[in-house]
Every structure is written in C-alpha cells, then in structure tokens.
Amino acid sequence: MEITVVDTRTGMERVLRAPAEDRLGLLAEMLEPVRGMYRFAPVEVDLVDVHLRGMGFPLDRDEERCLAALEDLARADAWNRIGAAMERGAARLAEAVPGLEPHDVTVLLTLGDPGDAHFTDTVLGVAGFGGIWGYITITLWPFPENLERLETTAVHELHHNLRYAPGGVVWDPATVTVGEHVVGEGLADAFARELYGDDLGRTRIAVPHLRDEAVFDKVVSGLGVTGMENFTAWVHGDESARRFGTAPVGLPAGAGYAAGNRLVDAYLAATGRTAAQALRDDHAEVIDTALARLGR
Predict the structure, then answer these.
(1) What is the pLDDT of residues 204-218, one digit of tens each?
(2) InterPro entries given for it (predicted)?
C-alpha cells in the first residue's frame, strides 16, 4: 500500500500569494491529484467549485489569516503526521482483517474557510471525506484541538476508505441506509480510539451528545431511512441539512456520530471484536447486537 500525502503546503502558499486572477488556475492544479475521487460522477467535476462549496479556503479574502494558519499546520508537522498515522492504521487493519489487500491512497489536506461560521463553529473546523476508495480529503482549520487530532482524523477516514473498497461493504447511493452511515462513523471513531485513545479518538462533534438519550433514540428511529440525500440531517444534524439544502429532522450537530459511537461500543463489547477486526462487519448485525445489549 502506497500512501501519498499531497504537498498542499506549497500549493496553498502559491495560491494565497498569487495575484487574484491567477488563483483559480493554481487551486485547480493543486486539487488535480484527487480528481479520481469523482470517477463515478456522471459529468466532469469542477474541482474548484467542489472545494469552495465544501468549505475550503476562499480565493478572494482572508489571505493573511490563511497564510498564518498554513504556518500553524507546518509547525505542527501536519503532513508528516498524517502520513505516519495512515501507515500505522493501514498496518493495523491489514493485521486484523484476513485477506485484506490495502490499496494505494492519496490524501489531500486543505485549509477551510475561516469566514464560514458553519465550518468554524458548527462542525468545529474539520470536514473529512474518505468514502471513495483510493482518496481521502481533509478540510481543516488549525484550532489547537484539531491539531491534536490530526492522526485520529486521518485514521478515521482510512477506516472508511477500506470499509468501502472493492471486496468490502457496497455503498449504493439509492439503497444505502442511515444505519450504514451511522455504524460506519462509529466504527471509524472506535478505530481511531483503539490507536490513539478515547480523549483524541472521538469526532469532536459527537462528544456533546454521547449520553443524550433523546438524541440516541431519535437517530435509532431513522436507521432504516434510505437514500443518501436524506443522510445529512440524521448524521450531521439539522444545521448541516439546512446548509446543504435538505430537510431537518430535529437533531443537533454530530447526532449520528454520537449514536454510532454508542452502537459500536455496545457491539464490540458484546462480541469481543476490535474496530479493526470489524472493518467490514454488516451494519445490520452491528445494530441488532448493540440494541439487544442496550436493552432497546
């Protein structure tokens, strides 16, 4: 398995220091290594548009704030730490899952938009995506808590990447359930915790709701909902649903992550398995086992 962490430090500095008219082209060039992530799209994807709509750093303001944040990432040795964490995570998964053949992965780390309150406040400055095998993107603002969690953010996304790789769990956008998404998030957090401890391993937006019974019950009521277009509210919460144009369901930010942590913890306790071993366990088995253990 070859892990490539793209040198976005150089790329972002070039973009942020360039004349305004040159930035779009330079950003497109920096993003090109992850074009393959969109290989299933029906039309060619505009990578810059995806970046900007996905809370990536802006091209028309906040240059100095972003350059200072870039230096924070550099001082934290972000790129090397992410690469080392990915290597460690891949080795653990290969050891735990018989027959697993880890594929090559390209990782792209970018700054987020410091002027976007949804990014900085609602999702606490972190947005990762690892659901399409072979590619991982991490959009981040270097708050101290996020710098502490660089490794766990990386291995969380790696767990997704290998769960949904060929030979693993099939993610059909039309038929996949909220339950699969919630279980996937819980397993990825549990894997990060196995490697780096509970304090750093849980996704930050999950933590406030881990013991909220009303939130848990609400998420459980929606585990059978199908269709990716419905997932944002159930997993990320109402604020994200409104942001991305889908219907809210009455849940706070990170609700699905919190419920996923509880379900997976109960499942692992009941079975004695690790999150690494459970990489490709069926979500329905996880849910049924967990709810039985929890007396639900």
Answers:
(1) 999 999 999 999 999
(2) DUF2268 (IPR018728)
Mean pLDDT of 55-63: 97
DSSP characters over 244-288: TT----S--TTHHHHHHHHHHHHHHHHH---TTTTTT--HHHHHH
Give CA torsion, residues 286, 288, 290, 296, to 10 deg: 160
**pLDDT band of 102, cuts 50, 70, 90:** confident
Domain spans, the chain: 1-168, 171-296
The answer to whether residues 117 and 88 touch, using CB atoms and an 8 Å cutoff, is no
Radius of gyration of the chain (CA): 19
Q: Token digits for 176?
A: 């996949």
For the chain, what is the largest distance between any 2 Cα atoms, rounded to a whole number of angstroms?
61
47-to-13, 28, 31, 35, 111 alpha-carbon distances in Å: 18, 6, 7, 7, 15
Would strands 135-140 and 126-129 be described as parallel, antiparallel, or unpaired? antiparallel
- The kind and range of the H/E element at 180 are helix 178-196
Q: How far apart are CA 191 and CA 222, in angstroms?
A: 24
